[in-house]
Amino acid sequence: MRFVIITGMSGGGKSTAMKMLEDMGFYCVDNLPVPLLEQFVNLMSMPGNEIGKVALGLDVRTDQSFLGISKTLDHLKELGHGFELLFLDSADPILVKRYKETRRMHPLSAGGTIEEGILKERKVLSEVKKKANYIIDTTNLLTRQLRTEMERIFVKEEEYNNLMIHIRSFGFKHGIPSDADLVFDVRFLPNPFYLDDLRMKTGNDKEVQDYVMSFQEAGQFLEKLTDMVEFLIPNYVKEGKYQLVIGIGCTGGKHRSVTLANALYDRLNNKGTYGLVLNHRDVSM
Asked: I need a surface site. Which of 6, 181, 279, 284 has the fewest CB within 10 A?
């Protein structure tokens, strides 16, 4: 039996992930009290049980019992029960935004602020997060992108090292992405904006791509950038980094940056055990 335990920050996407696992053929049980966890596992492990895939959601709303979950998980291993632990996380400002959009109170805010509830929750979950087999940071993930990562782990059963790489094109005149870890400026390349045939097109169009990449400097930049990123990735993984945001910018964020972001994505796609997401922030502005 494949047994998956899902937990994480409230607002991080646990409920969505549970629905996705259900679509993947898992028998899902959500919000089971922690004291009942061992009994549930024993029940699912009984001879003759025809359920082959089980997903169990653990919710921090069970605050008092949740504090002892690390010991419970250790005890399950001692009893010989195998399980995988998936942790859904997100940046604090995004969690606050999600709560405000749904007009819900954080389960641990206890009449205080959402921020206080998030801080308390992180302390409660800190030990559990260290035990996680998979950590998915949903800060910048769309629902379909989260599904892609879930399928990689639980359907395709690919190796997964918890690093999510976001390649993001942008325009400097609209500001540098506030969450970017690495920022690269491609304004040294000739600007297609000044060509009448290309002005209204973007780096998603072949004509613009062919123009930008026709310059030797563009190819050299892509080679050096790819080499550097491929060097950095395993070192970031080793240091426990869960998310890497690579910003590639030009003046307006429509032509050169989009072209190079697409090219870098193509170079890195399907080459590693990391998640990869492509986003063009300003292409429609």
From this structure: 284
